[in-house]
Structures are given as C-alpha cells and as structure tokens.
C-alpha cells in the first residue's frame, strides 16, 4: 500500500463516497499518492519542473487540461489559476499559497535530511511541508478531484501560488495583484496560510481550537550599523564597532517592547475562547478589561504566546570583521520586528531609537509596514462563515474563533482587492510544532495533509452555498 492509501481507507474514502462511487476510488487514491510523492520531493519539487508540460500533466492532469481552468505564469515562476464559475454574476474568491521555502542546513540536527522528504512514524519530513507546500499540494489535489468529479463551481475562484513569499512576495504576489487590478477584479474574500488548529499550544484551553486569523501583525526589518577607521589589534580603541553594536542589540533584547495584550484582535480571540478555558482562566479571559495585564505577564513567558502580547524583537543577523588581528571598521546587525496591532511602524521606530540611544549606531529601515486591517467575522461575513462551516463539516465539535497571525503572509499584498482577508490552514498543531516553522524537523502528518485536501475540496463546494448557515452548530454556540 502506498503512503496515503492505508490512511486513505479512512478520510479520503469518505470523500470518494460522496463522489461518484467506486469508479473514482482507484484514480483518486493513485492521484493522492502522486501528490503526496510530490510533497515528499521537498526542494526538488519546483514549479520550474512543473513548467514542463509532462510533469504538469502527470501531477494534476485534469487541472491542466480542463476547459474551466485558465493557468498563467506570473513573473516566470508564480502561478495564477482562474477557475471559471457557471454564474459569472457571483463575486470570485481567491486561495493563496507559496512554493518557495526558507533554507535548511543538513548540518542542523534534523531527524531526517531536510530535503529527503522521508516519512517517519506517520509524518512526512522536509523543509516546506508546513510552510507552505502542504497548502500548494492540498489546493491543487482538491481542485483535481473536484474537476474529476465533474463538479462545475457556480462561483469562480482564483488560486495564486507565489514563488517568493519568504522574501516579501515582491515579484510573485505583488505582480499577481497588479494583474488582477488591471483586470478590474475585486475579491469576495482571500484565504492564505497564517493560522491553524491549535491543540494544547494555548495552555489551559480544553481541546483544539481552529483560529481563523482576521489580521496579521505589521513588520519591520532594521539594519543597525557602526563604522570607524580600522586599526591594529595590538592598539585597540576603548570601544570597537563590534562592542558598540553588540551593546545596542543587547539593549534591544533586554528592553522588550511594551505589553499591548488585549488591545488588538487577540483580545477578541481570547474572549471567544474564554468559555473553553479551565477555571479560573475562563473567568479571567472573559474579563480582559480587568485581567489583560495579568494574562500578558503569564503569556510572555512562552515565546509563542509572547508574540500575541507585544511587538517582538528578533536579532537575526550580525556581520563584522575581516581578520582576527584587525579592528573591524564596520559591524552590522539586522533586527526583525513584528508589530502588534495596537502599534504603528512609526511608533516602533521611535522606540527603537530611544532604546538604542547611541548616535554612533546608524538605524536604517530595510523594510516595514503597519499591522493589517481586521477583516470582518460577524454572522454576515461570507468568507469567515464559509471557512468556519468547512472546518465544522470536517470537525463538528471543533471550537472555531477569530485569530491573529503573528507572522506575515503574501495575503497582505491583496488588501486593495478585498477587505475580507483570512489566514488559516486546517492543519492541527501541537506543542513543539510552532518551533518547526523555519526550524528543524519541519513535518506534516498524513492526517494533516489529507485534511488539507478534504478542506479545500469541501470549501470549493461550500462557496456555492446560496445562503449563509444561520447558526452552524459549534461548541461555541451550544
Ligand atoms: C511563525 C510560526 C508561528 C507558529 C505559531 C503557532 C502556530 C500557528 C499556526 C500556524 C501557522 C503559522 C504560519 C506562519 C506563516 C508564516 C509565513 C512566513 O514565514 N512568512 C515570512 C514572510 C517574511 C519573510 N521575510 C520577512 C521579513 C519581515 C517580515 C516578514 C517576512 C515571515 O513571516 O517571516
Ligand atoms: Zn509561508
Ligand atoms: Zn515561512
């Protein structure tokens, strides 16, 4: 049996059952197996290969041959798909994912080589399996199935697969947005990576919670540098470029940005979740107006929950020196900050300048943007409610709440095309998984990958619902 076929006798067969019966089972399982193989290829799976018609035809033959699907390359490597709906008067929506990954070193302590795509204990390991090739393959596999089934969506939709999300999406996502703007497209909603189902990550919360992020933090990359004439190491100045810069970054690390917990969308998120926390946290979370400062002090002890409390400061690169007996004439450090929704880029820059407090340290903004607007999540918000319904179709007792993306996604470039931007993938993450993003042992379970395919398969159909579910049963609403 293949990688997913034994698991496929569970969830995937249920999808097949809803389709046209046994006729499709073999084809679908074979296809799922194929797409899982592609996922396992890690770095070797690039859409450059996919530009080879044979490769495309092999992986997603129906997607690339259907008359309903228009595919175009953007900026050479990004992909834009348009899936035509039967009712052109309905506003289209858009799914996003990205094919590029951050580097991974074979020298780090991976349990399996990061680009082997090896499977161990039910997990497929490899750089990109969580961020974000699982979504790429999940979306395309679901599209393949729905087309094979002969389903014609009523509402048209776009799929955008960026190739440079990890370097700001300035060629991929930005050019996809430019094209759509030129074509006068406005989107009903946009769905990208950026949040998930958290199980055991928020301490005190009973059971998993699906957090559909309605916003994401702002960000800035700062370059701090110190220059002075080089000199002989035997006659050192009292302070060196390296010492001055090291002291500056240390001051930034020792003086975290102020606590803002409860003043951004994370406030709504925890209030929504309050009744699922154990006593006394349920009471505390229901009264953030009073207890937010106390909760912030608890949450800041953990690096994942700290990200909800404040603008974070990460010193990510430090370069200096050319020779061990020459006083370095130049030292530079890069600081990556993620800006809490209750702060602006301008405020953060003022704060950094005052904390560094040394005119010898030059501070330059390499890149920066304010926190993103908060997308609607009320009963009438089509995108939010359809994503929620799709989660509940798969996991009927799941708690679903609006969430907050603490990192950044390509979706931020789409804010002129839609006011309803959501960040969510249906993967279930447990304690320790947050550290796998950009870290070692990045992996996806068979179940998470299957869930991804199921989720998009159902979402495509749910987007054709004429009327929003009035009160879709969820634990939250019981
Ligand atoms: C960061 C992971 C935290 C995990 C929290 C707990 C689990 C939450 C569940 C799920 C999903 C998290 C998905 C995160 C998507 C992150 C995508 C990404 O890595 N984007 C880059 C973009 C980027 C690249 N360079 C810069 C520089 C400055 C700002 C952004 C970027 C990123 O955010 O680093
Ligand atoms: Zn990503
Ligand atoms: Zn990433």
UniProtKB/TrEMBL annotation:
In this chain the Peptidase M20 dimerisation domain maps to 215-358
Check the record and name the InterPro entries matching this protein. Answer: Bact_exopeptidase_dim_dom, Pept_M20A, Peptidase_M20, Peptidase_M20_dimer
* Biological processes per GO annotation: adaptive thermogenesis; amide biosynthetic process; amide catabolic process; amino acid metabolic process; lipid metabolic process; proteolysis
One term of GO molecular function: lyase activity
| Pathway(s) the chain acts in | Amino-acid metabolism; Energy metabolism; electron transfer; Lipid metabolism; fatty acid metabolism
**Which keywords does this Swiss-Prot/TrEMBL entry list?**
Hydrolase, Lyase, Metal-binding, Protease, Zinc
Give the similarity note: Belongs to the peptidase M20A family.
Job description of the protein: Secreted enzyme that regulates the endogenous N-fatty acyl amino acid (NAAs) tissue and circulating levels by functioning as a bidirectional NAA synthase/hydrolase. It condenses free fatty acids and free amino acids to generate NAAs and bidirectionally catalyzes the reverse hydrolysis reaction. Some of these NAAs stimulate oxidative metabolism via mitochondrial uncoupling, increasing energy expenditure in a UPC1-independent manner. Thereby, this secreted protein may indirectly regulate whole body energy expenditure.
Protein name according to UniProt:
Peptidase M20 domain containing 1, tandem duplicate 2
Q: Which organism is it from?
A: Neogobius melanostomus
């Amino acid at each position: 049996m293949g990688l997913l076929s034994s698991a496929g006798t569970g969830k995937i067969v249920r999808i097949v059952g809803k389709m046209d019966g046994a006729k499709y089972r073999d084809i679908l399982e074979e296809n799922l197996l194929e797409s899982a193989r592609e996922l396992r290829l890690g770095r070797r799976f690039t859409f450059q290969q996919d530009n080879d018609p044979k490769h495309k035809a092999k992986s997603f033959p129906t997607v690339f041959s259907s008359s309903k699907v228009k595919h175009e390359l953007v900026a050479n490597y990004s992909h834009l798909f348009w899936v035509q709906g039967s009712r052109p008067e309905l506003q289209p929506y858009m799914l996003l994912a990205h094919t590029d990954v951050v580097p991974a070193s074979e020298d780090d302590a991976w349990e399996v080589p990061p680009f082997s795509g090896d499977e161990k204990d039910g997990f497929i390991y490899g750089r990109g399996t969580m961020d974000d090739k699982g979504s790429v393959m999940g979306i395309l596999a679901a599209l393949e199935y729905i087309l094979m089934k002969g389903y014609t969506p009523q509402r048209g939709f776009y799929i955008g697969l960026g190739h440079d999300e990890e370097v700001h999406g300035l060629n991929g996502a930005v050019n996809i947005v430019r094209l759509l703007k030129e074509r006068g497209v406005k989107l009903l909603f946009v769905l990208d990576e950026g949040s998930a189902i958290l199980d055991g990550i928020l301490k005190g919360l009973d059971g998993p919670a699906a957090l559909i992020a309605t916003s994401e933090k702002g960000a800035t990359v700062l370059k701090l540098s110190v220059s002075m004439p080089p000199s002989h190491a035997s006659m050192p100045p009292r302070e060196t470029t390296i010492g001055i810069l090291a002291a500056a970054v240390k001051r930034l690390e020792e003086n975290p940005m102020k606590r803002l917990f409860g003043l951004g969308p994370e406030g709504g998120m925890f209030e929504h979740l309050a009744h699922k926390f154990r006593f006394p946290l349920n009471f505390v979370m229901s009264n953030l107006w009073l207890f937010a400062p106390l909760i912030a002090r608890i949450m800041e002890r953990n690096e994942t929950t700290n990200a909800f409390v404040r603008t974070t400061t990460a010193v990510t690169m430090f370069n200096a020196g050319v020779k061990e007996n020459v006083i370095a004439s130049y030292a530079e450090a890069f600081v990556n900050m993620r800006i809490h929704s209750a702060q602006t880029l301008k405020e953060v820059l003022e704060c950094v300048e005052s904390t560094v407090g040394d005119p010898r340290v030059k501070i330059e903004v390499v890149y920066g943007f304010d926190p993103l607007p908060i997308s609607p999540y009320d009963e009438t918000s089509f995108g939010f409610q359809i994503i929620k319904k799709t989660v509940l179709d798969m996991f009927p007792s799941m708690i679903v709440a609006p969430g907050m993306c603490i990192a950044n996604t390509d979706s931020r470039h789409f804010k002129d095309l839609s006011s309803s931007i959501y960040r969510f993938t249906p993967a279930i993450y447990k304690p320790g998984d947050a550290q796998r993003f950009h870290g070692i042992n990045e992996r996806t379970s068979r179940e998470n990958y299957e869930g991804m395919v199921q989720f998009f398969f159902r979402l495509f159909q749910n987007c054709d619902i004429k009327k929003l579910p009035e009160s879709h049963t969820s634990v939250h609403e019981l």
